[in-house]
Amino acid sequence: SVGASAVAGGWSAYVVGLLKTAGIELPATWTSVPADGGIVNLPAVLITLFLTFLLVRGVRESVTVNKVLVGVKLAAIFLFLFLAAPSVDPTNWEPFMPFGFSGVSAGAAVIVFAYLGVDSIATAAEETKNPAHDMPTGIIASLLICTVLYIAVTAVMTGNVPYTELDNAEPVAFVLRQLGYRFGSALVGTGAIAGLTTVLLVMMYAQTRAFFAMSRDGLIPQSICKVHPRFATPHRITIIVGLAVAAISGFTPINVIAEMCSVGTLFAFIVSSVGVMIMRKKYPDLARPFRCPAIYVVGTLAIVSCGYIMYNLSSMTWERFWIWSALGILVYFLYGYRHSRENKQGEA
Asked: 10 Å Cβ neighbour count for 252?
């Protein structure tokens, strides 16, 4: 939900930038959060509510929209690379690491939530035809493709414009405008909007399915994850998630949301790594359609690297993280622990 809120904020920035390129300037009062002098980031709220509507209507409709938008997004990425790659100036990469390795890890700490979309694939397992094959293939292929595209786009951006000028919410379109490609900037901005829409859709979908699985186990009330009789979707929790994302993105600065999401993502990766190693030790003969190779090496490296990146986040982010975690633990012990199906089976 927090990641989706950050994406909604980025979506709003690209829409505002695209309209500005077309000569339409929206009032900052309705496109900025209160901390930035506005009342509410209305575009972020509206796109969130629209996608909530789609998710309530059903997965089939959402997947169709998602496929079209992914195609537009990929076309925009390759258009950007085609237009901007020829004018890369390698001197812009000097010094190559201006803030040293600590700068790289600090940057990774903020942007690591971009990989949360890959992690979200796992939440669709129950609605996949052949999860034993499709889940590992989808996750690993997405990870490789995204990493290559991230590196390519970043290299071209920083090769054209000094990194000090890229501190804005729509850097890809900004680079093309600086190069004089105003129409290309508009096209790529449109593609970026399509891309952020798909990410927002997937993240909200993943959150609702995670809550649905938790409700089935009794960790949260089953009533809020009731399935709609016509659309066959968990409509109540979808609406709750949509309203929460709309509220966060509408009133919270994007940099605060991004760091909050990153610390949560890194912590989740650490917990997953620990959990997989414990499961491998405790249940060595359990049927595993996909087995992570060299799990104790991979798992340990994941814990160490994620822990180090978390260490580079700001103290304010850590404070918010502990408060958020405390609230989650409170919900677990006041409700989830006593109602959990797994706990009841253990007592039986």
From this structure: 20
Please tell me the distance from the alpha carbon of residue 56 to that of residue 47, in angstroms, as a whole number. Answer: 14
Query: Is residue 305 exposed (0-12), middle (13-18) or buried (19+ Cβ within 10 Å)?
Result: middle
Report yes or no on 100 lying in a domain.
yes
pLDDT higher at 160 or 192: 160
Angle (deg, nearest 10), helices 2-21 and 254-282: 140
Q: Find out whether 219 and 332 touch, Cβ atoms under 8 Å.
A: yes
- Does residue 325 lie in a domain region? no
Query: Strands, DSSP E only, in the chain?
Result: none
Q: What is the CATH number of the domain that holds 132?
A: 1.20.1740.10
DSSP 3-state of 41: strand
Asked if 16 and 31 touch (Cβ cutoff 8 Å), the reply is yes
Q: State how many domains the chain has.
A: 1
Residue 190 contacts residue 176 (beta carbons within 8 Å): no
Domain of 76, in residue numbers? 2-252
**Runs of H (alpha helix) within 167-294:** 171-178, 182-217, 235-251, 254-282
Assigned domain for 28 exists:
yes
SS3 for 31? strand
Q: Which residue has the higher pLDDT, 273 or 111?
A: 273
Does the residue 110 lie in any domain?
A: yes
Question: Is this prediction's pTM over 0.70?
Answer: yes
DSSP state of 335: I
Contact 201, 54 (CB under 8 A): yes
